[in-house]
Amino acid sequence: MQRTITIFALVFFALTTLAKDPGMKKGTPAIVSISVLEFNEEGILFIGDSKGGTIYAIDLNDSQVSSNDKALNMLDLEDKLAGMLGTTADNIMIHDMAVNPISQNIYMSVSRGRAKWTSRWETPNDLVDADILIKVSPSGEMSEASLENIEFSSISIPNPIDANVAHRWKKGAKLRSDAITDIAFDDGKIYVSGLSNEEFRAALWTSSYPFSKDVSANTLEIFHGAHGKWETASPIRAFLPYQLNDQKQLLAAYLCTPLVTIDAKSLESNQHVKGRTVAEFGAGNFPIDMVLYENNGKDYILMSNSALPLLLFDPEDIANYKGEITEEVEGYLAGVKYTPRSGSGVQQLADFNSKYILATQRLPNGKLVLTSLSKEWLYP
């Protein structure tokens, strides 16, 4: 999930040397699972390693500025990856995708594990650890990105969910796969959602970047209108920071599908935090990805889902919504309005360039494609 990089910023990066993290060292990071990917505006890749309980900051030496504004469409994405990785297309699984906002190179965390998929509720991280990082250029050239002998730094998240805790209703799954469910970078801070080993398991960790020794750890509680109760054990599935009414908020989406705002100021010290539920988008669904983008000078938020269409909403509608959902919702829909957009099978999302959102999409014929969604077409 990436913010649009302005022409000014691109020129700035072309003329200056990117700030280096003084804590970086050269070597091979001990990454166990490439669970989540996120870039900052300086082209540093953050990798959330759920199994290792660690956030890595990686300097990929990928700072060549691209001003490309063309679409990228790749058919048979899994076939291409399978040929490269020496397996079959039905075994290729993409765990996450992020775009370097400077070079527009696309990075995907990939595993050979899709053949193990048996339930619509399983996520890729439930099944197998992603151990391959793939790079795709804006023109579609594909290669494996090496994580050996690179510049990196890291920080451990405090008290992640124990590796041996079984999932309550996903047979054979461990909750450790949800130790890190999403990452967002904003204004010098990295926010990490997932599950802790506390009594109230849902958690948000906050760290400054470059990393310091102090990591703020907060447990979370939200009211789930579809379930009619307060919940503390379900992790955020997708989120992003955004300024609403002059206050930094985290806009967070959960399983079945409440949208919640969390005041960023409440995350500054270790404490239990209650979010404000501002919408219910439908049961029987989990959010896959959420991206903030700009079109014609206005911000929009697009969310992909496992069982719902693409959902487009206006941050101003969230800012102007004065209510809070604190009672069970009949029909599973309430609160902030949204605009549905056709996009059945869309999975990962990333802001690609000034004109397009990049997406992976499962077509009716079973093929997975890398496709570009026009920001003008998405306009409500």
CATH fold-level label? Methylamine Dehydrogenase, Chain H
CATH architecture: 7 Propeller
- Continuous helix count: 5
From the alpha carbons, calculate the radius of gyration and give it in angstroms.
19 Å
Record the SSE blueprint.
Blueprint: H1 7-15, E1 25-27, E2 36-39, E3 44-49, E4 54-59, H2 77-85, E5 92-99, E6 106-112, H3 124-127, E7 132-136, E8 142-144, E9 150-156, E10 182-186, E11 189-195, E12 202-208, E13 216-224, E14 229-231, E15 238-244, E16 247-253, E17 258-263, E18 272-274, E19 276-280, E20 287-295, E21 298-305, E22 310-313, H4 315-320, E23 334-335, E24 339-341, E25 346-351, E26 356-362, E27 368-374, H5 375-378
Parallel strand pairs: 13-18
Antiparallel strand pairs: 1-9, 2-3, 3-4, 4-9, 5-6, 6-7, 7-8, 10-11, 11-12, 12-13, 13-14, 15-16, 16-17, 17-19, 19-23, 20-21, 21-22, 22-24, 25-26, 26-27
Can you describe what's shown?
By secondary structure, this protein is mainly β. The protein has a single domain, classed as Methylamine Dehydrogenase, Chain H (7 Propeller), CATH 2.130.10. Helix content is 8%, strand content 41%. Strands 10, 11, 12, 13, 14 and 18 form a 6-stranded mixed beta sheet that branches. Strands 1-9-4-3-2 form a 5-stranded antiparallel beta sheet, with no helix packed on it. Strands 15-16-17-19-23 form a 5-stranded antiparallel beta sheet. The two termini are 20 Å apart. Mean pLDDT is 93; it is low at 1-18.
